[in-house]
Amino acid sequence: MSFHSKPTTFVGHVKIKVTNLERSLKFYQEIIGFNILEKTASTAKLTTDGKTSILTLIQPEDVTPKRGRTTGLYHFALLLPEKSDLANIVIHLSKNNIQFGASDHLVSEALYLQDPDGNEIEIYIDRDPSDWSWDSEEVAMATDPLDFDSLLRKSEPGKQWSGLPEKTVMGHIHLHVSDLRKTEEFYVKGLGFEVVNRYGAQALFLSTGKYHHHIGVNTWNGVGAPQPAENSVGMESYTLILSNEEAIKDTIGRLKKIGTAVIVENGQYFTYDPSGNRIELTV
Residues of the signal sequence (predicted)? Predict the structure, then answer.
């Protein structure tokens, strides 16, 4: 089963704000490995397959730098199809002197780095779901050191770097929030996700279809953390892909039942989680 196709509800696209579009495009093309699908003076839609955009860069007017200790983006995560792809990116980043962190999460193996504005990116591969360990409704996850020796044995020596693989998808998103209880109610009762891991008292991981997580949320920037300024670097919004129009209607009904507004803009549905993170609902 694919965890990033219908009928599973999943994150399909993320929009982030940057201070200098041309500088960011150079980074996202040459270092991360995206291609440009569409471009204007202030926006760029990025793609890996030449057809679908999974990331959009926006340079707002009067943009301000990223501010710490607010709600919003912790990281967005690019899911690669094969372990060899992750190994090849390790070599590519190292050749370009790009600093990155790494973790073994039991369910996945991941790299972490930042773009020129401090927006954090995870690049990862999943372990086979048969290797995930479930205790009732909770999946085991950890932050262990990544075994680079094992990973790099999967690299393809001599293969020229050619960017992100065509089948790369937006694997998940992880957000800073101000209140975990309200956030859980919104994502579970409102959007229909299930909590699949409680990581201490300050983080939750949620999914549909028994994925290890499509959405992570945490209060690591502080309970009651304020929202960032509208024109500051960070996340503009992310998109949830639902299975059909009936699923959108059901979701809107659940959101209204818990007192959450749904806004229609140009025929598209938007809502905000309790910390002000903007979400587009689409099929």
Answer: none
